[in-house]
Amino acid sequence: MNRQDIISGLFWLGVSIFVITEALELEVGLFSNPKPGFLLFWSSLIFGILSIVLVAKSMLGKSGRTKLTDGWKGLTWWNPAITIVLLFLYASFLKFLGFLLAMFGLMAFLYFLGRVKPLVSIAAAIMTVVLAYVIFQFGLQVRLPRGILL
């Protein structure tokens, strides 16, 4: 039994219950007609379920005590820093370059950061951009920045 996971799971379960009650006061609405509390309610509900899963897994599991620092071993800290810089650049150049070029650049770099081969990185970035464009432009009918291409 892992006490830290049980304590943190119960804490986050309490937070999610509090947010759910606040979302209910704002009114949730329906999927076809969402109200202000819609996103808060559903995201907190999912978060609460995940907290329950964490507590149950910790109570049923037979794992020994782990140190808090064990979860951080072997992580590379430069990847999150580069990702933050890339997101800032994406937001800065989105209007000028347009959705297609800015998203392609962001995705290609993110795939490359994941140690994917350059050719696979470019192909995956193209597929991601096309899929995102189809979903936002045609499915959700969101106007995307055109930029220098269109």
Low-confidence stretches: none
Oligomer: single chain
Mean pLDDT: 85
Strand proportion, as a percent range, falls in: under 5%
Structural class: mainly alpha
Provide the gyration radius in Å. Answer: 21 Å
N-C termini distance: 58 Å
Helix content: 55-70%
Compressed to H and E, one letter per element, the order equals HHHHH
Count the beta strands: 0
Biggest sheet, in brief?
none
Shape verdict: flat
Structure description:
- The chain is mainly α.
- 69% of the residues lie in helices and 0% in strands.
- The protein is built from 5 helices and no strands.
- It has helices spanning 3-26, 38-60, 78-97, 99-113, 118-139.
- The mean pLDDT is 85.
What topology emerges from the helices and strands here?
Layout: H1 3-26, H2 38-60, H3 78-97, H4 99-113, H5 118-139
Helix pairs in contact: 1-2, 3-4, 4-5
